[in-house]
Write a structure and sequence with these properties.
- A seven-stranded parallel beta sheet has the order 1-2-3-4-5-6-7.
- The protein has a single domain, classed as Alpha-Beta Barrel (TIM Barrel).
- The chain is 47% helix and 10% strand.
- Helix 2 packs parallel to helix 3 and helix 9 packs antiparallel against helix 10.
- The model has no long low-confidence stretch (mean pLDDT 98).
- Helix 8 links the parallel strand 6 and strand 7.
- The chain is α/β, with parallel strands linked by helices.
Amino acid sequence: MLTPLTADLAPDDVALVRLARWLLANGCDGLGVLGTTGEANSFSVEERLAITEALVAGGLPMERIIIGTGCCAVPDTVRLTRRALEVGAGGVLVLPPFYYKGVSDDGLFAAFAETIERVGDSSLRLYLYHFPRMSGIDLPLPLIERLLAAYPHVVAGTKDSGGDLARIEATCRAFPGFAVFAGTERYLLAALRAGGAGCISATINVTGRPAAGLVARWRSPEAETLQAHLTELRATIEAFPLVAAVKEIMARHTGEDGWRAVRPPLVALPPDQADALVARLEALGGLDLAPLP
């Protein structure tokens, strides 16, 4: 889920709640808040807590929300995770500590274990966030196996944004019952066929309806055609800087310039790229977007 911003680049609580309700009403089974698309690591811990509180105050069904809580410092991850549990979130999505590179599997295990032990709540449902292109950290399958053995009722699944379909399929095979979410709708059908849980994706902010259509009919004869169209939409959008591109689409859809705001170091799409993005989407038939109330 995107994080809308005000003109002074603060989180926009009103737009946030509005977007969350719209997404749940238009194809999304749940929301991944404060992930990469939500610019989580451009916000302070206090800002991230405030975003969580805005969703609670807005009356969102927190059990349908997974909140990104991973930080470089374990105490920050613990603080965010505890609050997510207190407000009834359906789970937390946790990056490994991502500043130090070349760390051992023992070190990664220790970081996740320390978080789980300090939170100290068996109701925790923790989803491992595998995104090595961004984090610079790989989460190998033997590490996942070790975490599942140590915390079988807490380590609930993974978002795999590594871009490797073979790994996604291997993870599904290796750990039955472990919720594997592909990080792109490119692999939605393949993930479902392998036993995965679905996808958590930046572009689902604007492709939720066709993605939901595929999920509803993934065993049908038209599944491949539905996937091909979804893949075309994803490929078109990800040809541009992804967060800025999705925010540009929302700005065009709503007629509200404020949707273009991103936090540095990200920047909004320049006008020529924005026009090119829209033209390419229109050539595919456009996006099936309901009005944003």
